[in-house]
Amino acid sequence: MRAVRLRREGPGDGTPRRGPARPASLRLLRREARGDAPLLACLAVLVAVFTGLCALGPVELGGKEDQALRQRLAAAADAGAVLTVSAPVELPQPGLGAPNPPALRTQLESGGQSVVSTAGRTLGTALRPVRTTVDYQLLGIDSPLPVDPRVTQESVTLHHISDAPAYLHYVQGAAPADSTPAGELPGIALSTGEAKLLGLGLGQQVELWFQATRSSPRYEVLVRLVGIYRPEQEQSEFWRQLPGLDKPLEYPGQLAGTLNIAVQGLVGADAPELLAKQGIPLPTVGWEYRVALGDAAVKQLPALAADTRNLAIDLNDLLCTDSPATGDSPCSIGAHPSGSYVVDDGLTPVLTAFTGADAQTRALAGFAVASLAAVGLATVLVSVRLLLRRRAVHLRLQRSRGASATGLVLQRSLVTAPVLLLAGELGWRLGLLPAPTGTSGSPQPVAALLGTAAALLLVPLLTWYAVREPGRAREVRRRASRRTRRLVLEATALVLCVGGVVALRVRGSGGGAGIDVQLSLVPVLVALVAVLLLVRLYPLVLGLLAGRSRRGGGVVAFLGLRGAARDAGGTSLALFVLVITLGTAVFGGMVSRSVYDGAAVGAAWTAGADVSLVQQGDVAPTPVAAGGSSPVRATVAEYLRTVLLTGDEDGANLPQTALITVDPAQLAAADPDGPLARALGVLHGGKPVATGTASATAPVLADPGLIVAENGESLRAVVDSALGSSRTALHLKPVGALTPALRQDPVLGPLVAGLPADTPVIVGTTALEPLLPAQQTGGTALLLFARPGAAPAAVAAAAADALGPQAQVRVRAEVLGTLRGDGLVRIVDDVYTVCSLLAVVFGLLAVALELVLTARERGRTSSYLRTLGLAGRQAAVLQVLQLVPLAVAAAAGGVLVGVLEPRLLGPALSISQFTGGPAAPALHTDYLLTALLGAGLAALVVCAAVVESTVLRMRRLGGVLRLGEA
Amino acid sequence: MSVNHAADRAGAPDLGELRRRAAEAARPEREEGLIVCENLVRIYQTEGVEVQALQGLDLAVARGEMVAVIGASGSGKSTLLGILSGQDVPTAGSAEVAGHDLLTMKRRDRLAYRRGTVGFVWQQTSRNLLPYLTAAENVMLPMTYAGVKRSERRNRAGELLDLMGVGYCADRGPGELSGGEQQRVAIAVANANRPRVLFADEPTGELDTATSEEIFAALRQANEELGVTVVVVTHDALVSEQVQRTVRIRNGRTSTEVLRRITTDDDGAQELTAEEYAVLDRNGRLQLPSEFTERLHMRKRVRLALETDHIGVWPDAAAQRAKADADEVQAETEGDDA
Ligand SMILES: Nc1ncnc2c1ncn2[C@@H]1O[C@H](COP(=O)(O)OP(=O)(O)O)[C@@H](O)[C@H]1O
Ligand SMILES: [Mg+2]
């Protein structure tokens, strides 16, 4: 050994020269980073995926929402014009000598334009004109006289419809001229059916009359039938909306055995002036619009709703002049004075429904997104922990050699920060690439920054925690309170969770734009609490099992269980990740399942049967051939009327009540197992029985509230007839309660669905029908039950005209298809699928990292056991066995969280927006999916363990030899 | 503090005298030395169980001294070195190294202390060096922390490695070094910032005897040539016999000290003498070696007798009887055998 003299320094020999705590050289950083490369890459990928999702996810989601909204608007437009603006126009009367304004037909278009320009900007650009109409009130037909002697009244409504020519084919004559030569009668056109029913021929003169009220003068008008048409493009929207132009309406008259006929006819564009000359002054001009939104539809929704709400006010503000003094018509259509503008708003209900459903969608998506974020964060935490664990020895060494904690933290951050920042930036850019433009969603840079910052901060934070100076005070505190601290943490999580759940239940979900943070965090908290509980419980269970296996003699099992129990605390992060992942997947499966099942209930409720026809007013259906070779197996007719009830006992008035009559025999044949069919048995046919002098008393099923209110006594029901000209009174005796289950019987759906939710309902039998007058406000439904195998379309076709041409046809399969195919429902499904898949990937990554974290310890245990004579095979089994409890606990915890969470959330989690139906849909756990998910996750974890133990086994020999090494 | 000192204080221990002594014990007066520990306590808390790793340890090491600390496994040696090297904080008591009070030291002072006042060598060869730096870089690392200039770092690293006899290893990574070379590089690293004290915790624990000799030589060289005070924890009897003072720790306390001296007798022949001393602490506590107490069946209570130049320690009467009985029985059985 060669001795070398060292320069000695003065007395201050040992004290170091003070200098700034310089971070170690770049070389050191580089060398260190090289060893950390795999984990850094893992972290970088996590951050990149996160920022990428922040860039892409909201945009993609927004696009899907837009699509869903457009889909709903289109569906609404298909069902009829979404928005109609109308105003009665005043035309110069003969003899008043008013200045002749330009012809109305020249004003219609500009009138429509001013409607569009008056509407708010969003609505204005969204309005798509469908047609312009000029509609007259009901005109009586004086001559020719009815063909059928039973017909007591014939009437016609005249229309000018701008787009009618495209849908008509004139079989005789031509369309009424838009400028009738002077001296000729105004022309009208009728359909072949109408002309035939009225007994009119081409060129025939028709005498019409009009009387505004009984006391006002009666005007007579002469017109000529100039055209007879038949429909073209019968499947078009036009004919679905305006069937009356083709099919005359025949309905019973006020006197028994009489008939009324109503038809609709077309007139030319100059008819207003011509008819005005004859004294018919006030046609109504209507502009019908559909509403179509372009890009970023959802973003426009609030403005659109506001514009729609304000439309009537705007129109009347801008197009009317307030002149109370003269009492003149204050508004104008072009140069024509007009009455106030009226908006028939079919848009607001669509928008309201969408807003509600969209809020629900976001709430549900929020659960999935928050869970994914939590899983991602936990995975980042695990990676950072592993990163530090691998460096722990080196960090300690550097610290003992005089590195400052700050220096070490800086040194770590210098490596990780650029990598993570770059990864975040890259992920963001990559996410923006495929992101569609022009959707309502926008990239969320704040979320991306926050996520990246969280990952960035975790590294220095955990580093600092690992290398911080030991403090005496801290040591003392830690000794005193480590247990307390754990308890406090657990209690805090529990309180937060319970508080969140309670707050949510009280507050309910929905409302507010964007994703509701509180709502989204609750599932994460629930999962956290579940994991804390599991971590507490599962060593106990394992201890018990271990004790049992020791007595049973299974050494490997005993050791494995013991090892698992010891690792319980250390693996809690992996457990958290797994539980929340599985919980989210199970939850999503349940939501999906519940929506799917709920939609079936909702569709059944809307349609009532396989197919149903619903008609306004009480109409006797024409018989439908059922049974035999007909696709219809059975039919059930039911009628709705609004009745005023007074208690027989106390004479108290009761709220407006719906009286529904059903044919019990038909129902029993069609739906023998239905709750209502069975319950109707107590009515014994429901025939009214005359009791003494009073009018007949009929047995009914009544709303429980009514029964309670009247102590089960009978009720006097007053039913007004269609035109209010007659009233009928009869007594109803409740003999049974119409329980909620009965009220929700789909059979009643088509009639009850349209009633306000709290309307009391009484159900009687059709035996009452002869006593009850027809009501215009009532409704008739004809339920058609299909023969097994019969196509719904065939069923609908078989009964097409049973309730008249204007009856609404509801096909259950179609309703169901619409509900299940709704864009928002698909969004929920998609979000859960994507989030669950990503969470599984993250979760497995976290588990793999945790396995690596604990591998050394477990490897050492089994190395040691091998030196004691445990066979290599057994040692491998032991490795896997140590992880089986984790897998099982994760599966159990995840399933539990997923299944319990929706029950905990209760009313906060409402999916009724997606399903329709009489009540909030029941939550249905998808047991098969849940079992598959649970088993799958457990299997994946065990697989990971097997792979890991195989890898370890290959290195085992080294492990055996280096037993003493830390 | 050893028994010899205690003898000076002999006298009639009346109440006033006891009071005076108590007051004196409470005075923050410190014993002389570079390292002074008094009544040092360190309690670990793991899973609710308290482990008293140090329970009132006293130690004094003079400047330039080389001291070996021995003791059974778990007696608290590593804990002591952890505290002295500024990596751990004692629970109670006092510890002062080169004028730094380790209990009240501020965070920043602790850092400066680790950088400049102490050096450390661990038992595990692999834990003393950063694997991804060469030997020279490892030596330079602490200097980087202390803010030494780059050129100076290089020079000093070379000098230190040469001094430790591993100059040829300068550009090799720790993985390419033998265990002995690694430990010598580690000693160089520990001396990088010219520390005043060097702590080594079983530096030869993983090495064979021959290599241990080398390491020990290196430590002694550091002690002699660099003037650094060395405290080395060891199991190795060979090592402990080569230092002048060996401190034995038992149950977290210094129990005995062995002082070795080379005495020249009348014939001029040099002889190495080793004397074992028990340690008497400031409160007058004394740990009797268990071989002694067991031999004399001393348990729980002993009788003390103050003589003019020493204190007699006698077994309790009951214990004495027990011993007599035992002797008798033994004598009988021996007699029977005969
Ligand atoms: N970090 C620690 N936590 C808990 N107990 C510890 C810790 N370090 C040491 N001990 C305990 O303190 C006692 C002394 O340990 P140590 O100083 O390492 O002994 P030695 O180095 O003499 O073998 C032992 O009983 C040991 O179990
Ligand atoms: Mg030790």
3D architecture notes:
The complex is a heterodimer of chains A (966) and B (338). With 966 residues, chain A is an alpha+beta fold. Chain A has three domains: 36-62 and 352-602 and 822-955, no CATH class; 81-301, no CATH class; 620-803, no CATH class. In chain A, the strands form three sheets. A six-stranded mixed β-barrel of chain A has the order 3-4-10-6-8-7. A six-stranded mixed barrel of chain A has the order 16-17-22-19-21-20. In chain A, helix 1 packs antiparallel against helix 8 (347-400), helix 12 (517-552) crosses helix 14 (572-607) and helix 22 runs parallel beside helix 25. The longest helix of chain A is centred in the first third of the chain and has 54 residues, at 26-79. Mean pLDDT of chain A is 78; it is low at 1-24, 510-514 and 957-966. Chain B is α/β, with parallel strands linked by helices and 338 residues long. Chain B folds into two domains: 35-250, Rossmann fold, CATH 3.40.50; 288-338, no CATH class. Chain B has helices at 3-8, 15-26, 77-84, 107-116, 135-146, 150-163, 179-190, 209-225, 237-240, 290-295, 317-337, and strands at 35-46, 49-61, 66-71, 92-97, 100-101, 118-121, 197-201, 229-233, 245-250, 253-264, 270-278, 302-306, 311-315. In chain B, strands 6-7-8-3-9-10-11 form a seven-stranded mixed β-sheet, with helices on both faces. In chain B, helix 8 (209-225) links the parallel strand 7 and strand 8. The longest helix of chain B has 21 residues, at 317-337. Chain B is globular. The termini of chain B are far apart. Residues 1-11 of chain B have low confidence and may be disordered. Chains A and B meet through helix 1, helix 8 and helix 11 of A and helix 4, helix 5, helix 6 and helix 8 of B. Adenosine-5'-diphosphate is lined by residues 44, 46, 51, 53, 71, 73-79 of chain B. Chain A: The chain crosses the membrane at residues 37-59, 364-388, 409-428, 448-467, 487-504, 524-547, 568-591, 831-855, 876-900, 927-947. Chain A: Residues 1-11 have a biased composition (Basic and acidic residues). Chain A: It comes from Streptacidiphilus cavernicola.
